[in-house]
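Example record

One chain of 501 residues, shown exactly as stored in the release files.
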Amino acid sequence: MNQPVMIAGAGPVGLFLAAELALAGVPVVILEQAEDPASPLKRLPFGRRGLWTTTLEALYRRGLLDVLVEALGDQSTGPADAHWARGSRRPGGHFAGIPVFDDGSESRPWRLAGPAGDSLMIDTLTLEQVLTRRAEELGVEIRRGLGVTAVETSESGVRVRAGSLAFETPWLIGCDGGRSTVRKSAGFQFQGTEPEFTGYSVLVDLDDPEGLPQGRHYTPAGMFTYGHAEGRPAALSMAEFDGGVYHRAQPVTREHVQAVLRRVTGSQLVVKTLHQSTTFTDRAFQVSSYRQGRVLLAGDAAHVHSPLGGQGLNLAIGDAMNLGWKLAAVCKGKADAGLLDSYEQERIPVGAAVLDWSRAQVALMRPSRASRALEAILRDLIATPDGAAYFADRVRGASQRYDLGEEHPLVGRSCPDFELHDGLRLGQHLRSGRGLLLDFEGDPRLAEIASGHPNLDYLPRDAQDRLGLTAMLIRPDGIVAWVAADEPRLEAAARAAERWF
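Predicted structure tokens for this chain:
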């Protein structure tokens, strides 16, 4: 492969995917429309994002989590003006504004406590800076000020136009956001549900900063979230059920924000100063296929939904983690293009579930008597240990499982982070981006199976807690592909190794 793979978009998903490909020795060029990677919307508070279990595990397995935490500094403990900051406990997520407090997540039978943790508050700019450094260290070329404007495909490659320039590439991945030019130009079908509300995130000075209660609140006109700390502009988020008509329709003015504030909250507060603002909706769309020939999509280019519950960035990084090693194997001639079919087979259901999770929250937010009645029932359910565990696992992605055709409950899940007898944890052995056959008992027959696959490492190590297993096959993305709970079924192990490696 002489030509580099091209990625449209240097956001978190494009950068993470580029690093995954480069880690496997695949040359990558990223084309990014913006000349300056910095933006006010990437900084706090608008750039604030929550990273959940699956994303933290992905960063940890590539040695990036500690780097990110160090770069965040005090930010990693959470913002002082967050609406939950004055409470006695920090929620582990929320569902349509209902806080989820789950203190037993570490006891899930398929998980072991480890360094990755369950949640981390970050800002988008810091995350992009960390991922940019890693990508460039691995040799990724980032060309800014060159957004993709047109795409032409053939059986042998893709012709990409960026402004007045044209490029040839064997593969193009669209990571260029919810209004993806790659998606539109390549003719992907994008289907879903239209918005019910216009959402506002604003920084304001109010005539009475204590005139609104902190936290999330339902109202007869919608919903609002308010957070305020002494000496800072107030952070206010509002959802008005107007069919999404105001999103990007015209500039957001102080007068308009004040009018929405009064309609949604029922107050007569005055917005003295509007410092920053952005709008969003609950539009929920997904492509019917993540791949058309040699063009693939990941992140918001493949699916858009409301930001409720902080699922978008985590879903996008999951796409990149799933696709990176598979496309690298195809590019390096270690697998045929059929391996890429598993990318959309695995990720389309995950994306569809997140879109429905978003739609369910919107249904609960509607300003109706029926929604308030349903809210009361769900609050009671989420307050129970089992209810909190279910909602927390859905928010964090910890319950995610791919259907790989095996019955064992660990197959298709993220691998437990075993504490091995070599003094390392399992996640530390996955930093090379290669697959791993973990053999707790040192069976030479398993070593022989691994030796037949150059992209699969063999690791004979025992662990502090095996979870009742004797061996495990782990894909480069950390997903368990095969396990043995007693005498290894060698034929099954060989089939799994052949399927993925």
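Notes: The chain is about 30% helix and 25% strand.
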